[in-house]
Amino acid sequence: MKPASFVRQVLAVCLYPELLKNKDLPLDVRQTAKRFLEVCDGESLGCYTDSSGMFHIRQGISEFITRRDAGVPSYTQDIFISSGSQGALMVIVKLIASAEGQTRTGVLTPTPCPHTLPSLLDEAGVILEPYQLMEERGWAVDLHQLHQALKAASGRCRARAIYISNPGNPTGHVQDRKSIQEVIQFAAAERLLLLVDEVYQDSVFGEGREFISYKKVLFEMGKEFSDRVELVSFHSLSSACMGECGLRTGYMEFINMDPAVKPIVDTLLCSLICAPVPGQLALHLMVNPPTPGDPSYDTYTQEILLTRATLSRNAQRAQEFLDDLPGMSCQQVMGGIYLYPRLHLPSEIIEQAEKLQVEEDVLYCQRLLKEEGVLVGAGSQNGEPAGQRHLRLCVLVPPDTLEEVLACLRSFHLRLMDVLSHPDRGVKE
Question: What is the pLDDT at residue 340?
């Protein structure tokens, strides 16, 4: 997808300040770049910043959160900028990691989960304790499954946190207010830290669904919860509409965190010096886009609306397409950038995978890549238990690209299913 022109123009001016003299660039682009350079040491993007990020950007983020949550206050001192949401999550997980044996830290983690999460927890020395999302309910979070996971954890670790992805990655599920309330009540009762990934908050398109932040719901539940439930929420440039993943910058907000923890977080962030300064600038532009009356407003708005409309149409198109294939079913997606269809593969390919000592969905993906040049993710890389096999397909692409991918996928899938249904025709190597 094409990046937002306003963001790239401001970045270009900041990286090459001679462009401040270029009257062909919109006035608000040049003014924004000038103001940003003025707060950089040496008026250069090549400077270092505070480990937790530039103060005026953190202030802008807190103002964005306050607007988003209809006046629920956010404070600059509770905002920490990091090298992407994954970097921020690693800092928090390291904070809670402790000891060995049954006193090792555990984190209740959804199945399926983001494909980078298992290795991140493993690197931090933390035990992943899975709770199953309910596929037949559109991948909803189920309170019974949370209690089951907590019970299972008691025998091998001390569960100290619960991780939630909303909108779901890779499932596309969007929680409603009741579901969020149930999770908050569960976390409060069990004294668990809530780790909430809200990176895809700008990409909710399911009918009757809207993004509601955990923080907003928490404060609606009254002081019994809002004064004592510990919450860390994450957001980043990897959001659907901004899509500046390679700039590797995100932020986290602390709610009800012990003040003594914050200097330790700052110290841990200091090991990485600071988040990339161009990324911090892009983060600032993400939460402070052009407003009505600005020269760049119309173009920026059109580009963002086009991205959202493309994502919504692609998701519906791909979901219906995949659900129509034999041996595949796909839940209706509500948000995010992925579809997560289920594979119902014949025993022949399962036996073949066993002989090759690979998961059957991995074998499927390897052959799809080899025969059609299409790369999709294997669900077994998302923490799935045996017997459940899915694909992870990104639909945030131009419509023509999606159609090309779907055509290749259909050709491969039907060919595979046909050969397996008629063994006498032989299996293509």
Answer: 96
Q: Are 168 and 133 in contact (CB under 8 A)?
A: yes
Q: Which of 210, 203, 147, 220 is nearest to 176 (CA)?
A: 210
pLDDT < 50 regions, the chain: 423-429
Instruction: Read off the pLDDT of residues 345-380 as tens digits, 9 standing for 90 and up.
Output: 888 888 888 898 988 899 999 999 999 999 999 988
Q: For residue 350, what pLDDT is reported?
A: 84
The ranges assigned to domains in the chain are 48-287, 309-425
For the domain bounded by 309-425, which CATH number is listed?
3.90.1150.10
Distance CA 196, CA 172 (A): 15
In the numeric block, the tokens 């491969």 are attached to 412
- CB-based contacts of 56, cutoff 8 Å, min separation 6: 39, 284
Angle at 364 between CA 363 and CA 366, to 5 degrees: 60
| Alpha helices in 245-389, H assignment, sequence order | 261-270, 277-287, 297-323, 347-356, 360-372
DSSP one-letter code for 382 = G
pLDDT digits (tens, 9 = 90+) for 35-75: 999 999 999 999 999 999 999 999 999 999 999 999 899 99
Question: What is the rounded distance in angstroms from the CA atom of residue 158 to the CA atom of residue 103?
Answer: 5
Report pLDDT for 429.
Answer: 37
CA–CA distances in Å: residue 325 to residues 170, 319, 320, 416: 20, 10, 9, 12
* Contact by Cβ (8 Å): 95, 260: no
CA–CA separation, 427 vs 24, rounded Å? 60
| CATH class for the domain made up of 48-287 | alpha beta
pLDDT value of residue 84: 87
Distance between first and last Cα of the chain: 35
Return the pLDDT at 99: 63
